[in-house]
Specification:
Structural class: mainly alpha
Largest sheet: 2 strands, antiparallel
Number of helices: 3
Distance between the termini: 50 Å
Strand content: under 5%
Number of domains: 2
Order of helices and strands: HHHEE
Strand order of the largest sheet: 1-2
């Protein structure tokens, strides 16, 4: 893996928060910043799963909105967490 140096100018309050997190984790500020960036930038393989999940949730929300609009009580709609689909 190639290391690329970077200079980053942070506002004082943000640097202080980062420094506190680093101290709590017993890491350097650089190591903490690297951890934050790594967790914020997903691996390319993870993106399709996130988009698929978001799409399923939007479809479910739309279906629930249509049911409610048509007069159905949707407050207790059960869901199947393993398949992310509404159960009949």
């Amino acid at each position: 893996m190639t290391i690329q140096p970077i200079t980053l100018n942070l506002p004082g309050h943000l640097y202080n928060r980062l420094k506190r997190r680093a101290e709590q984790a017993h890491r350097t500020v650089e190591a903490e910043l690297l951890e934050v960036v790594a967790s914020a930038v997903p691996v390319a393989d993870e993106l399709p799963l996130v988009r698929q999940y978001e799409r399923v949730m939007l479809v479910r929300a739309h279906a629930a909105a249509l049911l409610k609009q048509r007069g159905h009580d949707v407050s207790e709609l059960p869901c199947n967490p393993s398949s992310n689909t509404l159960l009949p």
